[in-house]
């Protein structure tokens, strides 16, 4: 397949923007980082991404701000606005409400992730990555699980339920316990109402019945093919498909009947979105004796 050199350079520009949201992102600097003439860059960016570069920068800053509102309750709306490069909290609040149909304080109290996803559903240009795959034997893992049934766009509601349970019980400290996502369906291949995804937190003992609806499950051990995904969870399917299309056919391995899972090694917005690391784990059949 012929390489799309323009698409690759647009990706360079996007990665630079995502990595430098706190900086003054000028057109000259972005063009220099992506090896583009500024006379063509704006049109090319819009053609590939479906939004202007200035809209993309604003969207990425608002995206981070939405996560900060939801997950950093001690961070003031004024500080979030300044970090998003707004001179005044009032102008930030007006634009946020225009985009999400609710004020920052309303979003903080009750985030509407469905509306948030609709806002961020724009054209994205992402090349399928080359993946490095390791095969490892993993031990069985005891989990406390939120079972998400329904639209993938509402999955952050289930994530917030898990966060609230962890904070209120202390039974699965985030810094000491693994966090995983068990993927039962490809969201592009099933109706939204049939989509299933588990958010799991490692526990040392079975958890009691609770008001959050968190239940006990076990993640099977055994042989897994593991590839590390770097960057936004929104593009993690690129790594999954690369494992299926590039690695699996030439590996000689057979998949077993368990679902794949994600092991989240860090979290946004604790780190910048481009610094996220997630292990994609495909279950493999045992080796023949």
Automatic annotation (TrEMBL):
PROSITE patterns according to UniProt: HTH_ARAC_FAMILY_2
Coiled coil: none
Pfam family, one: GyrI-like
Residue intervals of the HTH araC/xylS-type domain: 11-110
Gene3D superfamilies, A to Z: Homeodomain-like (1.10.10.60), Regulatory factor, effector binding domain (3.20.80.10)
Keywords (A to Z) from UniProt: DNA-binding, Transcription, Transcription regulation
InterPro entries, sorted: AraC_E-bd (IPR010499), GyrI-like (IPR029442), Homeodomain-like_sf (IPR009057), HTH_AraC (IPR018060), Reg_factor_effector_dom_sf (IPR011256), SmbC-like (IPR050908), Tscrpt_reg_AraC-type_HTH (IPR020449)
Gene Ontology MF terms in the entry: DNA-binding transcription factor activity; sequence-specific DNA binding
Name by which UniProt lists this protein: Transcriptional regulator, AraC family
Lineage start: Bacteria, Pseudomonadati, Pseudomonadota, Gammaproteobacteria, Oceanospirillales
């Amino acid at each position: 397949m012929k390489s799309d050199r323009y698409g690759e350079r647009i990706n360079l520009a996007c990665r630079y923007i995502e990595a430098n949201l706190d900086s003054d992102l000028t057109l000259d600097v972005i063009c220099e980082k992506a090896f583009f003439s500024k006379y063509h860059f704006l049109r090319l960016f819009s053609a590939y991404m479906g939004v202007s570069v200035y809209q993309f920068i604003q969207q990425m800053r608002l995206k981070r701000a939405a996560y900060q509102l939801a997950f950093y309750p001690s961070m003031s709306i004024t500080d979030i606005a300044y970090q998003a490069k707004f001179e005044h909290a009032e102008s930030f609040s007006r634009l946020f409400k225009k985009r999400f149909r609710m004020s920052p304080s309303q979003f903080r109290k009750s985030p509407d992730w469905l509306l948030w996803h609709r806002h961020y559903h724009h054209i994205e240009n992402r090349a399928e990555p080359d993946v490095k795959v390791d095969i490892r034997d993993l031990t069985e893992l005891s989990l406390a699980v939120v079972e998400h049934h329904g639209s993938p766009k509402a999955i952050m509601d289930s994530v917030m339920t898990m966060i609230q349970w962890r904070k209120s019980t202390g039974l699965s400290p985030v810094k000491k316990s693994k966090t995983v996502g068990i993927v039962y369906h490809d969201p592009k291949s099933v109706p939204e109402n049939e989509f299933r995804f588990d958010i799991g937190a490692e526990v040392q003992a079975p958890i009691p019945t609770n008001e959050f609806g968190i239940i006990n499950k076990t993640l099977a051990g055994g042989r897994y093919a593991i590839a590390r995904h770097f960057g936004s969870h929104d593009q993690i399917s690129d790594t999954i498909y690369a494992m299926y299309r590039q690695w699996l056919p030439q590996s000689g391995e057979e998949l077993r009947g368990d679902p794949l899972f994600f092991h989240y090694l860090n979290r946004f917005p604790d780190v910048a979105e481009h610094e996220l690391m997630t292990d994609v784990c495909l279950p493999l059949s045992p080796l023949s004796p």
